[in-house]
Amino acid sequence: MIPSASRSVAVSLAGPTRSAGWLYWPGEPPRNNLAWGVVVADEIASIGPHPQMLQLAELFDHVEDVVAWVKDRDGRYRWVNRAFLINYSLDHHGERANLDLRDVLGKTDYDLSPAFLADQFRLDDEFVLTGKRIVNRVEMVGQPAGATAWNVTNKIPLFDARGVVVGTAGITRKLDAPGQEVTPGFEFGPVLAYMRDHYRAPVTNRRLARLVHMSVRTFERKFRDRFHLTPQKYLKRLRIRMASRALVYTGQPLVEVAVGCGFSDQSHFTREFRRYFGRTPREYRDHYARDAAPVPNPAAVEQEPAGAGPL
């Protein structure tokens, strides 16, 4: 079961380094796991006065389809789980037997991702570094070999013993099929799944409230309490994030991107997009066009991932 992102995680300032038991597997570890622990220990020790200690972090190496990471305040990766590293390795080097953490640790998203994604990831980080959280955000995420998949993502701040934010942590997990419950047992899971599957069409709060058997007023209040956003703002940001990838990775006309991502018209799309990213859709496309060759595939809007940003 994935830990809830509704609470912040406190971390120790003076935690263990190389000798920390949580860095190693119980008993006699296989050689590759020992090497993994040494590299992680060295990287944590290098952080200096604010080591990012997640003493249960190793458990995330055993959770299927969950990518997890920890960053410092400057956005440098200080710990990633095996799924993160495997995805990175497949994306950049092809499959290989010896996964090297040093390819990732100490680097930022600007070293690992296209600039437009790195900018959005940094927007997330800056939001979370204020002490806020990103809770159960439904988004499209790139997979190895250029594929994309729907994911649900959570990001939280990490605090030292004095209550100072010293970094961020996040997890994302894949949703395999349309209609799949976003978070089993989660009150708003059906709502998030419906938004994921129907964001291109008009979606009313009344329809969403019926999915969770609430009155509209109760639904709106509880949703805002849970996500710190109204249902319609959550939906709007999902649409904007979907459009951001379509602008970079497809050659579709702006009006088709707008309508394909659920906006009523191009003017509405341009206004909301500029409010969120500080650029018009055309300026955004021109700025990031060098990062990816456009693919004139009308279906790509349905397949390409959205970026990041506090949702």
Structural notes for this entry:
This protein has 311 residues and is of the alpha+beta class. The protein has three domains: 9-175, PAS domain (Beta-Lactamase); 179-197 and 206-223, no CATH class; 229-303, Homeodomain-like (Arc Repressor Mutant, subunit A, Orthogonal Bundle), CATH 1.10.10. Helix content is 40%, strand content 14%. The chain is built from twelve helices and six strands. Strands 1, 2, 3, 4, 5 and 6 form a six-stranded mixed β-sheet that branches. Strand 5 (148-159) and strand 6 (165-175) form a beta hairpin. Helix 6 packs across helix 7 and helix 9 (254-260) crosses helix 10. The longest helix has 19 residues, at 231-249. The chain is globular and about 45 Å long. Mean pLDDT is 73; it is low at 1-52 and 293-311.
The name of the CATH topology of the largest domain is Beta-Lactamase
CATH architecture label of the largest domain: 2-Layer Sandwich
Order of secondary-structure elements: EHEEHHHEEEHHHHHHHH
Q: Radius of gyration from the CA trace?
A: 20 Å
When the domains are counted, the total is 3
Structural class: alpha+beta
CATH superfamily of the largest domain: PAS domain
Q: What spatial form do the alpha-carbon principal axes imply?
A: globular
Largest sheet, described in full?
6 strands, mixed
Query: Runs with pLDDT <50, length 5+?
Result: 1-52, 293-311
How would you state the average pLDDT, rounded? 73
β content, as a range?
5-15%
Keywords for this entry:
disordered N terminus; 40% helix; alpha+beta; 311 residues; Beta-Lactamase
